[in-house]
Design goal:
With 492 residues, the protein is α/β, with parallel strands linked by helices. The protein folds into 3 domains: 6-138, Fumarate Reductase Iron-sulfur Protein, Chain B, domain 2 (Orthogonal Bundle), CATH 1.10.1060.10; 154-249 and 423-491, 3-Layer(bba) Sandwich (FAD/NAD(P)-binding domain); 252-419, FAD/NAD(P)-binding domain. It has helices at 6-9, 36-44, 73-81, 85-93, 99-105, 109-112, 125-138, 162-173, 190-193, 202-214, 231-237, 266-280, 302-313, 349-358, 427-432, 460-463, 468-491; strands spanning 58-60, 63-65, 154-158, 177-181, 218-220, 240-243, 249-250, 263-265, 294-298, 318-322, 363-364, 367-374, 380-392, 398-402, 408-411, 414-417, 421-423, 436-437, 440-441, 455-457. Strands 5-4-3-6-20 form a 5-stranded parallel β-sheet, sandwiched between helices. Strand 1 (58-60) and strand 2 (63-65) form a beta hairpin. Helix 3 packs antiparallel against helix 4 (85-93). The longest helix has 24 residues, at 468-491. The protein is globular.
Length: 492
């Protein structure tokens, strides 16, 4: 490394962020990129650790550790320290098709396994990654890569999320003709409608889609395979099909009062708000409005946090997020040692905003909703909860037990369910004759072949709800498998 003692000389810094209260007045991204000098210092913190765990990309204790797309992190950190931006960009693009996405919305498992993180805050890998790609676009270093020749083979990709886009990018560069089908009115999948603007401005997604279009990829929107185009027509028109439909079946809450007005799936809420924002700057009224309402989000994950941030920007009266697990510790525990992903307490952007506006972190821990109660008109009025205690039985199995006397009633006019996804939607798979297992497409990791010849699957549709880096990983890998399949077909 260029600065062997950098990790001892410089402390970790965060990119500049807007004031938590001030940023609630708009839907723009809340953070910016590092200055050149600061970025050089942050790159210098990457130590000569010998074996870089940051890009190993595997699962430990059931959680992703390191970078699944095996980014060459130490290499581009060193190049950034030296000010060799264009070379850093080249290294970054060797493994990552879309650093502008991962540099904004990936939870950065690479930082959890950073060697510096054994005793100090990790290298700011995610922020450095974002700055490299943003500088690449700003300086005109990224331009359309038009394949010199076409193979004559055609590939259909169903779904335009990160897995589908990565597969499309790789196959297009191999010279195959790629068509990406998206049932929504804009391509991008969850990148477009599942992640709010303040984390990922849609101009960033549209910029990449425009570039892929210039490179020869066709995007067909407002088209649902199995409905607007039959599976038979798809198979007839294309030499291969890749299913990247995601894990879009939202897990529901089975509880008294679930049918009341004012209870919505989190993803429906986020999608409608983003669509209205893009279509009309929220003037069309085609969204769920929480202004002056009490909001409760059930589910303690990132999607729930995005609901909190969205409700805050709509000027809700109050917002609370329920989670079933206890509050995480401030530091790693003995059963969560490095390099596993650090299960520690953090104050994410939405919670920082809620605390700044209302004075408290909106999260409630170890809590269970017992029932939802209506007003005289059938609208949700309140939630009844009880605190839970996590315990272990004689065999060491964990379970939750109610704590008597902790019952509480919470006012609410809007409730958002954000408890995860059950798997992929089934109608298209049934029409194609695709076998499934546990609500996921049955296709082995690394192989990606379904039971139907010429039809492959990748991303959340195959592996279940996961990270954007795993989606890109699988998109890249399924492209290699399909390329080999098409080349073999040509040889025959």
């Amino acid at each position: 490394m260029g600065k062997a003692t950098g990790f001892m000389e410089y402390s970790r810094q965060k990119p500049k962020e807007k004031n938590p209260v001030a940023r609630l007045s708009d839907w723009k991204e809340y953070s910016s990129i590092f200055s050149n000098d600061m970025l050089s210092q942050q790159g210098a913190r990457c130590m000569d650790c010998g074996t870089p765990f940051c890009h190993m990309g595997m699962e430990l204790q059931g959680v992703t550790t390191g970078c699944p797309i095996n980014n060459l992190i130490p290499e581009w950190n060193d190049l950034v320290y030296r000010g060799r931006w264009r070379e850093a960009l080249e290294r970054l693009l060797m493994t990552n098709n879309f650093p502008e996405f991962t540099g904004r919305v990936c939870p950065a498992p690479c930082e959890g396994s950073c060697t510096v993180a054994i005793s100090d805050p990790a290298v700011a890998i995610k922020s450095i990654e974002r700055t490299i790609i943003d500088k690449g676009f700003e300086n005109g270093w990224i331009s359309p890569r038009i394949p010199e020749k076409r193979t004559g083979k055609k590939v259909a990709i169903v779904g335009s999320g990160p897995a589908g886009l990565a597969a499309a990018d790789m196959l297009n560069q191999q010279g195959h003709s790629v068509t990406v089908y998206e049932r929504a009115d804009r391509p991008g999948g969850l990148l477009m409608y599942g992640i709010p603007n303040m984390k990922l401005e849609k101009e960033v997604v549209e910029r990449r889609i425009h570039l892929l279009t210039q490179e020869g990829i066709d995007f067909v929107t407002n088209t649902e395979i199995g409905k607007d185009i039959t599976s038979e027509e798809l198979r007839e028109q294309f030499d291969s099909v890749i299913l990247c439909t995601g894990a879009q079946k939202q897990r529901d809450l089975v509880i008294e009062g679930r049918e009341l007005n004012g209870i919505h799936f989190a993803m429906d809420y986020l999608t409608d708000v983003t669509k209205s924002l893009l279509n009309s700057n929220l003037t069309d009224g085609k969204f769920i409005d929480t202004k002056d309402k009490d909001v409760i989000v059930i589910g303690g994950g990132d999607t729930g946090a995005d609901c909190v941030a969205t409700a805050l920007r709509q000027n809700c009266r109050s917002v609370v997020q329920f989670g079933k697990h206890p509050r995480l510790p401030g530091k790693r525990t003995s059963d969560n040692m490095w390099p596993a992903y650090p299960n520690v307490f953090t104050l994410e952007y939405a919670y920082e905003e809620a605390a700044a506006k209302f004075g408290d972190d909106p999260r409630q821990y170890s809590i269970q909703t017992k029932k939802i109660v209506a007003d005289v008109s059938g609208n949700v009025k309140e939630l009844h909860t009880i605190q839970m205690e996590k315990r272990k039985d004689e065999d060491g199995n964990c379970f939750f037990q109610e704590i008597s006397g902790t019952e509480k009633v919470w006012p609410a006019q809007h409730v958002f369910i954000a408890i995860g996804f059950e798997g992929t939607e089934q109608p298209l798979l049934t029409q194609l004759g695709i076998e499934t297992k546990n609500n996921k497409i049955a296709a082995a990791y690394g192989d990606y072949k379904t039971n139907v010849d010429g039809v492959f699957a990748a991303g959340d549709a195959r592996r279940g709800q996961s990270l954007i880096v795993w989606a890109i990983n699988e998109g890249r890998e399924v492209a290699a498998v399909v390329n080999q399949y098409l080349n073999t077909a040509v040889a025959k």
